[in-house]
Amino acid sequence: MNALAAPLRRRRLPMTKLIDRLPDVRGRYTENADLAKTTWFKVGGPAEILFRPADEADLAEFLACRPADVPVTVLGVGSNVIIRDGGIEGVVVKLTRGFAKIEVDGTEVTAGAGALDLSVAMTAQEASLSGLEFLSGIPGSIGAGLRMNAGAYGGEIKDIFVSARALDPNGKLKILGAEDMGFRYRGCGVPGCWIFTQATFQGEPGDPVAIAMRMQEIQTARESTQPTRTPTGGSTFKNPHGGKAWELIDAAGCRGLKRGGAMVSEKHCNFLINTGEASAADLEGLGEEVRDRVREATGVTLEWEIKRLGRAS
Among this protein's residues, is 163 annotated catalytic? Predict the structure, then answer.
């Protein structure tokens, strides 16, 4: 063959790994990190990169310097999320020890976004502050609680909220008051790309013994009505206006319904559970089947409360 007629061969350049494109940090990057171990459902694919920032300043520097095309996903303690089987592309930010500090100043409690709701309630109790007891019944962290205006047992985040700190996608600090949050039922108006780092809540002086008794009542009620000892993700669907999701699910005959290793809890049918071998696809597919059956039986379309993240396998 004439050399001039031969097809041109393009030189294959080595691909740059994502971790090599990321800025230097004081925290820790982990490639191909197993997320299933970090979620309550115990399912899901890996994070391309898992980033545990050292503190707020470290996270702000990362956001300011990261490549603009790299997606960022924030993950709390994984109690109210399904990570899909294909995992999550880009960087998953997990706020850990550097965001778990809790302090009391008078009647105010300030907590990092990575602090557990239960830990905040216990700190308030030890400081003889009432009004935060309901947090002991919410299995999550403060950051997620702010994002979804978490509530249970007669209280919501908006009821005790004073202020919050958040970082925008460029790492700029935002100080938010109640009027900035736009709280609504199981949600808020703060842009989803902002990352909460801290919040301050208002308590009221109270009797620590009475507060502890109320927290024990909440714990007892939770254990008696919810599948707390089985891999689950909390309430699956939001309550529709004027109704209760579990009643609609029960009326549609979904209690105990199964798909693969996923099952609608017989103890509380607004909970999905992993019976041991479920995939994320099993859980999400079962949830969609429940929505279809409820819609057909009652005309109500249930809205997911559990967040579903990542790619299908």
Answer: no
